[in-house]
Specification:
Length: about 290
Amino acid sequence: MEKNKILALISLLDDPSDEVFSTVEGELLKEEVGIVPDLEKAWESTLDSTYQRRLENLIHTLQFKDVKTGLRQWLSSSDDDLLYGAYLVSKYQYPELRYEDVNNKINQIRKDIWLELNDHLTALEKVRIINHILFDVHGFTRNNTNFMAAQNTLICDVLDTRKGNPISLSVIYSVVAQRLGLPILGVNLPKNFVLAYLDEAGDLAAVGKGEEISILFYINAINKGAVLGRKEIEFFVHQQKLEPDVSYFLPCSNKDIVQRMLNNLLYAFESSNQPDKVEEIRELLSLFGHIPS
């Protein structure tokens, strides 16, 4: 739609007639998120609380639609980049967030680690260097004071505060490692989330295909990158009284990781009594073919 027509419709949002408002709103909702700056300008130029509320609702609806469209496209893409999926989860809470800003912060961490790596190091030695840069130099750690808060799952907040939960810290760890050519992937372990260091980089192609994957060891990002063996994972599963499942020991897909991040958000918003956000996260989760009860 032409700019002048969009502006004309925006000016009609303060019409007292519900019928006129409903028609105008319907037309504007057909547009993309690119009209949000015009809606924001209209909000700034009025003191009418009803007009402002209508503008706020319209802005939020368009931004939510944008995130939902982006997530749907990401899910249907064969190149389901993990960082971009995590970025979309953050974009729900921060609609103005730019992927470039998140990506640049990840690349800076990658560069800091790359300067310390060389091809003669063993897998264990490489992990020790990653752990040192991530947890000692950059100070990433578990958020103990507000562990269940939504911010611990949102990748942009974790990159800023250096505090997160098992899955957000693991996502940063895995993305950085893979950009360094190291086959470190997420393992969807219930009540925790760990990483697996694959024996061969070629095994990356086997993930999610039911093929045998050889794992050198596991990494617990929430515990400063502590290295674990299979026995420790088995002990944890037994300790938590979980039914043994082969998936607890194998890398999961990027889609599984992003779905779990959204489930974490769902729980956070339920815990903080934000029903509107709960319903919207359920709507995003429905794109994965599963709606939590």
